[in-house]
Design a protein that fits this description.
heterodimer; A: alpha/beta; Rossmann fold; 5-stranded parallel β-sheet; two-stranded antiparallel sheet; B: alpha+beta; Aminopeptidase; 9 strands; globular
């Protein structure tokens, strides 16, 4: 399966990175990692790219890592359609101090606009 | 995640403090008081959440699996958190929790749950006001929450109390209130 993973550097996106890379290694998915702009991310885009490279190396697989400029949600949806991905994978939301799950605006846009399957990783 | 980047300029004051008793719309006498930290208070709270309708869960809480509910109770009953219960007789039928982001000097996140059997009777308003009054008494000045956007009843209630929307970008609205540091009890 051809999978587009969108990550911006929030904690839930890093968890999604780990899980999606593991799964790609296990089942042989063809993975592309898109690093998007998330102004609320605690990590720089370079740090996120480096982290992605480490995860791929640790899992022993290769994947394209792409820096994506512009509005994250619409860029991911466009890429998925243009390049015929089967699935977009994203972090499944941040957790508040008391444990409430909060789905971010990127995930919301992708869920409402993508014609491909969307996977939110918890 | 952490809370809002900004808070309303105007502080809300004159809030009631626990313990107090209110009469709900169905003429039930509802006792509002702070958690006393005993095991029996924890058990009464657990019993409320065991009876809770899963359809009324919000953003994953309260957790429905017993072990996860226990972990969640540990989290919200920790030192530095503030909890106010609404009792109908010996049963907890409503609960507000205030959980700090990062230490007692930081802003607090608020959540409220009222048992289905006691919804729509005005208990929620009295309970939130009393919990905020209790928080102000403890020195809390900034409180925030998230609420699912389609939950108009809850959003209206928070606005009436003085919460303002600080982020409307996602499924969840983020709302915040600033409290007047309150030293006198009005309850």
């Amino acid at each position: 399966m051809k999978v587009l993973l969108g990550i911006g550097g929030s904690d839930d996106s890093i968890r999604a990175l780990e899980r999606v890379v593991d799964r790609a290694a296990a089942v042989g998915d063809e993975l592309t990692i898109a690093i998007v702009e998330n102004p609320r991310s605690p990590r720089s885009r370079d740090a996120v790219a480096e982290r992605a490279r480490e995860e791929l190396d640790a899992a022993g697989i290769d994947a394209e890592i792409r820096q994506v400029d512009g509005d994250p949600g619409s860029e991911l949806v466009d890429m998925a359609e243009r390049e015929e991905f089967d699935e977009i994978a994203l972090g499944g939301g941040q957790t508040s101090p008391m444990g409430k799950i909060n789905v971010g605006s990127i995930a919301e846009f992708v869920l409402l606009n993508a014609h491909t399957t969307v996977k939110l990783v918890r | 995640m952490t809370g809002p980047e900004r808070y309303p300029n105007d502080a809300v004051g004159g809030l009631p403090t626990p313990p107090r008793t209110v009469e709900d719309a169905e003429e039930r006498q509802i006792r509002l008081r702070a958690d006393d930290g005993t095991e029996s208070d924890r058990e009464a709270l657990r019993a409320m959440y065991e009876a809770f309708d899963p359809a009324d869960r919000a953003q994953g809480i309260p957790p429905s699996r017993p072990s996860q509910l226990e972990d969640w109770l540990d989290r919200i009953l920790e030192e530095g958190c503030y909890n106010v219960f609404a009792f109908d007789g010996d049963d907890v039928i409503g609960h507000v929790t205030l959980v700090p982001e990062n230490g007692t000097e930081s802003p607090y996140e608020l959540a409220i749950f009222v048992l289905q059997s006691h919804q729509g009777a005005g208990i929620g308003t009295a309970l939130i006001e009393t919990a905020l009054g209790y928080g102000a008494e403890q020195g809390i000045t900034k409180v925030w929450l998230t609420v699912e956007r389609w939950n108009r009843a809850a959003v209206g209630l928070y606005e009436k109390i003085g919460f303002e929307t600080t982020d409307a970008e996602s499924f969840e609205l983020e709302m915040a209130i600033r409290l007047d540091a309150q030293t006198e009890s009005t309850g």
